[in-house]
Amino acid sequence: MRTVQINAPYLLFLGDETRATYVKTAQGLVDWVGDKCAGQYRLTAQTTDLQLPDLSIAQAQELGVKSLLIGTAQIGGGIPDNWMPVLIEALEKGLDIVAGLHTRLSSVPSLVAAAKSSGARLVDLRQPPNDIPIGNGRKRSGMRLLTVGTDCALGKKYTALSLTKAMTEHGLNTTFRATGQTGMMIAGEGIAIDAVVTDFISGAAELISPDNVASHWDVIEGQGAIFHPGYGSVSHGLLVGSQPDAFVVCSDATRTHISGWPDYPLPSIADVIEHTIRIGQLTNPQIRCVGISVNTQALTGHERESFLANLAAEHQLPCVDPLVTGCAPIIAEIERQF
Amino acid sequence: MRTVQINAPYLLFLGDETRATYVKTAQGLVDWVGDKCAGQYRLTAQTTDLQLPDLSIAQAQELGVKSLLIGTAQIGGGIPDNWMPVLIEALEKGLDIVAGLHTRLSSVPSLVAAAKSSGARLVDLRQPPNDIPIGNGRKRSGMRLLTVGTDCALGKKYTALSLTKAMTEHGLNTTFRATGQTGMMIAGEGIAIDAVVTDFISGAAELISPDNVASHWDVIEGQGAIFHPGYGSVSHGLLVGSQPDAFVVCSDATRTHISGWPDYPLPSIADVIEHTIRIGQLTNPQIRCVGISVNTQALTGHERESFLANLAAEHQLPCVDPLVTGCAPIIAEIERQF
């Protein structure tokens, strides 16, 4: 396994952040892998409280915590001075520091020195492994489902996590596979696929969902969007390397344009399905769409119901909002088709 | 301009290489931009002779040479010890060193020191610029032609160079745009597009063919192949960011499989045309195919003639082998369509 590895259990570091939206990485960890989260570290009494035990570094160490995860986004991505004493203490006590910050932990000499003295690791989630091979295109054993999108930031990770949970509860042997930094903290491993040099992106995707037993499902977190003028190549490489048997299209009920690219209308779901099949067939001729996942938070209950029903009729596919309706219709479709 | 820039005239460094195939980078420079090549530097009398003046570093400096180009491929890509005195002398005398080696020039302390002392540059062609933006997808002025392929290594660069030469001779205002290291030495600038982090690849392609006057043609060197299981994302990002008006498909008359990927049959030219249009339409709805360029070196004269004629009839497009037939039919098609 040559993906980036994160050791649990975790201590979630929240700095002095008081705004809930800026600790959503940490909140996601509590929501999805609460059993891996031993406690939280808050620099002030006013810091957002995730209802985990407040632990000192010494207490975390006694409880067997392996990693301090930086669970707050910083504007600019740098490391504030008032974080440093805690991070250095954690490293000295042997805890790995795990972060997806723009500033690499490994570029800060005092952190490097403290890590070296104890043997703890600095885990920069946006730094891909060094030894990624070129994609070989060989068929791997086991089943794979990839979430794709009409755009970025409309629920591909959330859909993949919801599907993983529901498929597991349904008795399917299922693993969530992470391709971005928050997903990696949840999964405990993965590769930030958009940070990989283009020559190696399909090879990186191949590492993320390795050979498995025939009945096992990997549910792979999608990135970008195949018709995106900036990030489409990320989606292309992830699709080719993932060789999915099934995919779910994620969209947003009210979005009309690619977010941040006002010249680009949102592509139709039908076009995304057709194009994903066309590209995906290269490495898996059996690829098919098994459902549509829509963020409907801007709709009322009645609007949502008719929106999803119309979409289902149009595409002859199960359509859900995982946050509201759950994923059962998509799981039924997977069972029907595979 | 934020592409990598190379200053001419050049001194071509050939080391002690005696095999012609290992100096083909330098031979390409002599063939395509002989006027930029002031001379050659050979470590031994047995070194391959490109019929350029043999110059010492001092003589090159007197003639106004600006860059020493490493024109020989090394197995492993490293820098042999017996090159070092010459490279250091060149740097000390103010010549830039330009290389596309796997070992980065900037990772060799003695070269860094010598460059620093004189102000000369170490130009690693496989190191993309640091400040590449995300692709914005905005339409740029001027016309663009991209060479695409059914596979790697079957003539996309050669076709682009041949087209540039023929279009220029035909009176069209045309510039060759380089996306790989040999192309960059010929063009004097460019970006090694396959070495760019995937998030930025379409942005890099946008930098390579900037806004220009309406009647100007950029002829852009293609990379990879859109149906390639390893390198397809490079082709995808280059296509989206180049927003070509026209493309030429490059293929090989006798190749049956993706070179090095025996499980993957060569895609049909018709599929490559259809798929290139489908993806290219995202950033240029007017994209169209203007010809097919085939490497026919394995065919006899009569076989070649009927092969190209059959292909032209099948696709209703001009079909050439630029090395043998020239590019005139494709230029006629460009004039007819634009």
Q: State the secondary-structure class of chain A.
A: alpha/beta
**Rounded radius of gyration of chain A (Å):** 20 Å
- Mean pLDDT across every amino acid position of chain A: 96
**Quick one: biggest sheet of chain A?**
6 strands, parallel
Which protein chains make the most extensive interface, counting residues with beta carbons within 8 Å of the other chain's beta carbons? Answer: A-B, 32 and 32 residues
Going across the biggest sheet of chain A, name each strand in turn: 8-10-7-11-12-13
Number of helical runs of chain A? 11
Strand content of chain A: 15-25%
Q: What is the oligomer described by this structure?
A: homodimer
Topology readout:
The structure is a homodimer of 338-residue chains.
Chain A: E1 4-5, E2 10-13, H1 24-33, E3 37-41, H2 57-62, E4 67-70, H3 84-92, E5 96-99, H4 109-118, E6 122-124, E7 143-149, H5 156-169, E8 174-177, H6 181-187, E9 189-190, H7 201-208, E10 217-220, H8 232-242, E11 246-252, H9 269-280, E12 288-295, H10 301-315, E13 319-320, H11 328-337
Parallel strand pairs in A: 2-3, 2-4, 4-5, 5-6, 7-10, 7-11, 8-10, 11-12, 12-13
Antiparallel strand pairs in A: 1-9
Helix pairs in contact in A: 1-6, 3-4, 7-8
